[in-house]
Design brief:
By secondary structure, the chain is mainly beta. The protein has three helices and 21 strands. The protein has helices at residues 44-47, 92-95, 99-108; strands spanning 8-11, 17-21, 25-28, 36-42, 51-61, 68-69, 72-73, 75-86, 112-117, 127-129, 141-151, 163-172, 183-188, 197-202, 214-222, 227-241, 247-257, 267-274, 288-289, 317-331, 334-344. The strands form five sheets. Strands 3, 5, 8, 10, 11, 12 and 19 form a seven-stranded mixed β-sheet that branches. Strands 1-2-4-9 form a four-stranded antiparallel β-sheet. Strand 16 (227-241) and strand 17 (247-257) form a beta hairpin.
């Protein structure tokens, strides 16, 4: 094997089945999704004549794995496909699609067998709601898993001793579209003021990638009799759990509070920089993340991109982001809090 390739390996407890995969993150490029491929090594002696299968699943979970309400488990399989790997139903060459598989098969010998899956177009990406410090067990998530197991047939109960489970992630990537420059504006009319307050919020582009600072341009023309102060901006994550609960969570993931002001009869034009990063939100319960693999870091969840003719209910959890501009307008008639927002997309 070339030293630049890291291969994930997991062995069943009885050592009858071993799974090798070159990666655990698979990218949805909008027009195609990276296929799932790997190699399974079997021990014929330990198998004792049983068959070997590999399964790819996408599951929506809501709450702990053992939670049950009126006999209904808060879990739904959104996608499930199982294929027989051994005895092989096709020649190895027909099931070998990548150079990594070819190298693994050469290295691992005659008891190594390839597997290959393609994601259907209607599946969501991996998402997990960040648990609180005191939370235990499975939480709300859309999860993908590769499972290898042996048995007389694929429908019999799976023996944990002779099975292997590997969590994988399907993550969203969105190409930049420089033609789209998000902007929105509005006008506020105040009582006892002859002229209005005009506010415009704009972004230099629609798609922002993880780790990239978000720059927002604010333009305020204050022709009113009110004084504007305490301008603040925030990036807010909107998470909609559309299976079972229909819950909606709105949480700020970046905020810039200023003492900037726009007195009556003046104007302001300024660029603000926000940093929506998971590193600044590590302990915040309920934030949507790009799934999570054991002992590995992740990011804030990418915006959900629902393809045409795909039911939203199949997605399990939908995520979007918006930039919110808030300000305080004060005058002779007291203090009135005004706010202004614009929705935008972020991506991995």
């Amino acid at each position: 094997m070339s030293p630049k390739h890291v291969v994930f390996k997991k062995v069943s407890r009885d050592k009858s089945v071993t799974v090798y995969m070159a990666k655990r993150d698979f990218v949805d490029h909008c027009d195609f999704v990276d296929p799932v491929d790997g190699v399974i090594v079997i021990d014929p002696v330990q198998l004792k004549g049983k068959k070997v299968y590999v399964m790819l699943s996408c599951t929506f979970r809501y709450g702990r794995q053992d939670m049950d309400v009126m006999g209904v488990a808060f879990r739904r399989d959104l996608f499930l496909v199982t294929r027989q790997v051994y005895p092989e139903l096709q020649d190895k060459e027909k099931l070998t699609h990548t150079k990594i598989q070819q190298k693994l098969l050469r290295k691992l010998g005659n008891n190594a067998f390839p597997f290959f899956f393609e994601f259907p177009d209607n599946l969501p990406c991996s998402i997990a709601l960040q648990p609180g410090l005191s939370d235990v067990g499975k939480k709300c998530a859309v999860e993908f898993e590769v499972k290898a197991f042996c048995g007389e047939n694929q429908d019999e109960k799976i023996d944990k001793q002779s099975s292997v489970r590997l969590t994988i992630r399907k993550i969203q990537f969105s190409p930049e579209d420089s033609k789209l420059l998000p902007s929105a504006e509005t006008t506020f009319e105040f009582l006892m003021s002859e002229k209005p307050l005009h506010v415009k919020l704009s972004l230099p582009k629609e798609t922002f990638y993880h780790g990239e600072p978000l720059k927002a341009n604010v333009e305020i023309t204050n022709s009113s009799s009110r004084n504007i102060k305490d301008i603040s901006l925030s990036v807010e994550q909107v998470t909609h759990v559309i299976l079972y609960s229909n819950d909606k969570y709105v949480k700020s993931v970046a905020k810039e509070e200023t003492s900037d002001s726009v007195p009556s009869g003046t104007s302001l034009k300024k660029e603000y920089t926000l940093h929506p990063l998971l590193a600044y939100n590590k302990d915040r319960r309920g934030l949507a993340l790009d799934g999570r693999l054991k002992h590995e870091d992740t990011n804030l969840a990418s915006s959900s991109i629902v393809k045409q003719e795909v039911l939203k209910e199949v997605q399990g959890i939908l995520v979007s982001y918006k930039v919110v501009l808030r300000m305080v307008a004060s005058g002779s008639s007291g203090v009135t809090r005004q706010w202004f927002e614009h929705i935008l997309n972020t991506s991995d």
